[in-house]
Design goal:
A hairpin with a 6-residue loop joins strand 1 and strand 2. A two-stranded antiparallel sheet has the order 1-2. Helix 2 packs antiparallel against helix 3 and helix 3 runs antiparallel to helix 4. The chain has 114 residues and is mainly alpha-helical. It starts with a strand and ends in an 8-residue tail after the last helix. It is built from four helices and two strands. The chain folds into two domains: 51 residues, no CATH class; 62 residues, no CATH class. The radius of gyration is 24 Å and the shape is elongated. The structure holds zinc ion. Zinc ion (ZN) binds next to loops.
Amino acid sequence: MITCPACGHEAETPFKFCPECGAPAESPARAHEQRKVVTVLFCDITVALGAQTEMLTSTADAFTDLGEVLRLAGKDDEAKAALDEAIARYERKGNVVGVRRARALAGYEALAGR
Ligand SMILES: [Zn+2]
């Protein structure tokens, strides 16, 4: 049983185009592919919005976490790049604690001596 996504016509045998209205039948794989695209677009929009202002802190936190993970993985250059992104956002937000933590993780200053 296959149902036309456009008109709801039901047929026993699969069709490429609905015999009732001529609309193309949507394959499950194609629907899945479209969902994936929408998800990726949504993520892009979320990141783009986050880069604006409201989500500066959570984006900075995400970059800090990323930097920490990269550093633990021994990827110091990539860690530093991520932490620089975090620092820039914390600074724009005036988050002194965040700046200090990210700078310490990046190795710019020691955590000790606070
Ligand atoms: Zn149809």
